[in-house]
């Protein structure tokens, strides 16, 4: 039996109609006293019908103090309805926002964990894109932002069709003669959001060079490390894409899976210490694990580029080795699986003509853009072929990949998907990791597998790259062909997921949409999340290069990936001193949980503090 609470009933006609549904237990309430309500047209008849059907009718119920009206054992409502709330008279939007804010906080105290809050508003009041026409944001009730303050997200919105509600008659505020205009009205359905996580430092244990070691995971990766998306028992769409894609390719090529024992850490070189996109880590022997809290400030967690006492630094912060010093080995989280594939070929582990498959998460620091991910699942397909046949091998392999992806897409959506193979000469492809130069002799990217039908290979459109490399030590006649695919982007493309962060949500409503790993068109459970805009301006330290990647990485960390865009909106340089000032605009927006303006304000304050501490800027 579903327990339903109705608030602010005028003549109880809506409650009487809802009470007819089977399997429901209705509690109908109004703000006025029973004496005031009894004189309203139709109210006595509706109240009588409600009581005959076993409903409970309560009077003088304040929607902002609901727990005062119900004992603990009488709470836990499955649905709460509040149709056309209003402060009355000529109350403006600010007063009505305050009413909604208090109502949502009150509802959270009497709603079941997976319950719903239904709020019907007149057309335009809500301030969402569903309103037609849509009011300007400052002139609306800003219902999604207001609800977020109490931990609710908008999960559905649909027309409020009064004509389909048998016997329903809308009244005005406290049953004034002028009723609310219900034409074009919308019913907004809210659900509880997952609470904002507060991650503790994570120590990761692994084996490296036959020794057990551990390291503290960079803070922005603590909720993404070791998630097991590709494990056999996973229902995640990223795994489904990988499994279905390899199954399709196995019909054209003999396949060999090499996922086991891929190293998470790669060893770096002295010259690589200043590479801005790498997550350098500090190893600890397992017997001396770092279990303490994070250090003051976030600089170490952000950069992890440890320059020891044996290394001087130049003007760019890069390390110069002092003569006679012993330099410990440098390690970083793998930014690509290309070196693993290359190492396998150099060891002669590849069977000619066989397609070898490697897959796993890869990590890199990157600027905040819609398709830039600090971690994603890469799949590398590698094949050793005879010299002179590599072009035909590439064409055959890419054609099969394109056909397989299109086939997967057609099982989910009726829209036609076009993929193209483009020359990658002079293309700046930032959406896939191009870190092979750090560890291998792989040639430059030769082709891009793009989902952009215009052939422009815009950022975000490239889902894969093709490389070739010659390995003289193995055989003069052997050429290796590599294809790298971003499984996360493919899952987004196939399932219609617009935000990469949704792949990493801990909200169970995401994976419920993919039972047994079945690929389906994703339906968002958090609609129209409001964006919040904040600006920050500062002076750059004299003579230093501004590290924009570090700037973006700090924004990711302090906000928990809530910053979706960073835009440079102004720069200024003093002619007399050369001192430079930058002004950036940050846009905060969540994709899966409630985010209030107060939370964002706190994030912005922390961001200002951390860029001052970590980057040495002077705030304006």
TrEMBL record:
One of its GO terms (molecular function) is ATP binding. The keyword Ligase applies. PANTHER family: FERREDOXIN-FOLD ANTICODON-BINDING DOMAIN-CONTAINING PROTEIN 1, PHENYLALANYL-TRNA SYNTHETASE. It comes from Calypte anna (Anna's hummingbird). The lineage of its organism: Eukaryota, Metazoa, Chordata, Craniata, Vertebrata. Its main location: mitochondrion. It is found in: Mitochondrion matrix. This is phenylalanine--tRNA ligase. It catalyses: tRNA(Phe) + L-phenylalanine + ATP = L-phenylalanyl-tRNA(Phe) + AMP + diphosphate + H(+). One of its GO terms (cellular component) is mitochondrial matrix. InterPro entries: aa-tRNA-synth_II/BPL/LPL, BMT5-like, Fdx_antiC-bd, Fdx_antiC-bd_sf, SAM-dependent_MTases_sf. Pfam families: BMT5-like, FDX-ACB. Its EC number is 6.1.1.20. Keywords: Aminoacyl-tRNA synthetase, ATP-binding, Ligase, Mitochondrion, Nucleotide-binding, Protein biosynthesis, Transit peptide. One of its GO terms (biological process) is translation. Gene3D superfamilies: Bira Bifunctional Protein, Domain 2, Ferrodoxin-fold anticodon-binding domain. Residues 527-620 form the FDX-ACB domain. Belongs to the class-II aminoacyl-tRNA synthetase family.
């Amino acid at each position: 039996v579903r327990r339903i609470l109705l608030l602010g009933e005028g003549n109880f006609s809506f409650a009487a109609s809802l009470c007819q549904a089977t399997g429901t237990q209705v509690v109908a309430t109004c703000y006025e006293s029973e004496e005031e309500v009894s004189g309203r047209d139709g109210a006595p008849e509706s109240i009588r019908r409600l009581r005959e059907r076993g409903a409970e009718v309560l009077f003088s119920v304040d929607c902002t103090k609901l727990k005062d009206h119900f004992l603990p054992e009488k709470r836990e409502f499955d649905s709460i309805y509040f149709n056309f709330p209003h402060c009355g008279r000529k109350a403006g939007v600010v007063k009505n926002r305050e009413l909604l804010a208090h109502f949502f906080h009150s509802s959270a105290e009497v709603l079941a964990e997976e319950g719903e809050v239904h709020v019907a508003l007149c057309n335009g009041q809500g301030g969402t894109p569903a309103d037609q026409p849509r009011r300007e944001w400052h002139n609306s009730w800003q219902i999604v932002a207001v609800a977020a303050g109490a931990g609710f997200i908008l999960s559905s919105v649909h027309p409020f069709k009064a004509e389909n509600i048998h016997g329903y008659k809308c009244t005005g505020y406290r049953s004034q003669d002028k009723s609310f205009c219900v034409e074009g009205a919308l019913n907004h359905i809210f659900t509880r959001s997952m609470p904002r996580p507060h991650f503790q430092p994570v120590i990761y244990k692994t084996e490296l060079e036959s020794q057990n070691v551990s390291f503290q995971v960079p803070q922005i990766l603590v909720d993404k490390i070791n998630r097991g998306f590709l494990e056999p028992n996973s229902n995640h769409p990223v795994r489904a894409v990988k499994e279905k894609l390899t199954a399709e390719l196995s019909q054209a090529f003999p396949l060999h899976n090499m996922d086991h024992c891929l190293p998470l850490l790669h060893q770096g070189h002295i010259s690589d210490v200043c590479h801005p996109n790498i997550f350098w880590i500090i190893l600890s022997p397992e017997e001396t694990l770092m279990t303490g809290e994070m250090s003051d400030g976030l600089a170490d967690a952000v950069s992890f580029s440890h320059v020891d006492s044996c290394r001087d630094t130049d003007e760019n912060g890069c390390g110069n080795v002092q003569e006679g010093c012993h330099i410990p080995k440098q390690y970083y989280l793998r930014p690509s699986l290309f070196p693993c594939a290359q190492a396998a070929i150099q060891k002669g582990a590849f069977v000619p003509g066989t397609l070898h498959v490697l897959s796993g998460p890869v990590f890199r620091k990157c600027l905040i853009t819609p398709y830039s991910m600090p971690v994603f699942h890469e799949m590398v397909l590698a094949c050793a072929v005879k010299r002179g046949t590599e072009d035909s091998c590439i064409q055959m392999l890419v054609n099969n990949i394109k056909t397989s992806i299109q086939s997967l897409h057609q099982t989910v959506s009726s829209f036609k998907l076009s993929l193209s193979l483009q020359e990658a000469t002079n293309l700046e492809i930032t959406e896939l990791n191009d870190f092979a130069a750090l560890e291998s002799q792989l040639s430059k990217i030769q082709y891009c597998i793009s989902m952009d039908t215009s052939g422009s290979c815009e950022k975000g459109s490239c889902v894969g790259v093709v490389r070739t490399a010659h390995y003289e030590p193995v055989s003069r006649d052997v050429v290796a062909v590599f294809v790298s695919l971003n499984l996360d982007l493919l899952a987004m493309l196939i399932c219609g997921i617009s935000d990469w962060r949704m792949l990493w949500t801990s909200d169970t409503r995401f994976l419920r949409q993919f039972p047994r790993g079945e690929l389906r068109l994703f339906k968002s459970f958090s609609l129209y999340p409001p964006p919040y805009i904040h600006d920050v301006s500062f002076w750059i330290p004299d003579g230093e290069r501004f590290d924009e990647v570090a700037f973006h990485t700090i924004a990711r960390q302090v906000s928990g990936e809530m910053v979706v865009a960073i835009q440079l909106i102004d720069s200024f340089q003093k002619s007399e001193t050369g001192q430079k000032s930058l002004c950036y605009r940050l846009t905060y927006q969540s994709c899966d949980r409630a985010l209030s303006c107060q939370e964002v304000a706190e994030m912005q304050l922390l961001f200002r503090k951390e860029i001052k501490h970590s980057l040495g800027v002077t705030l304006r």
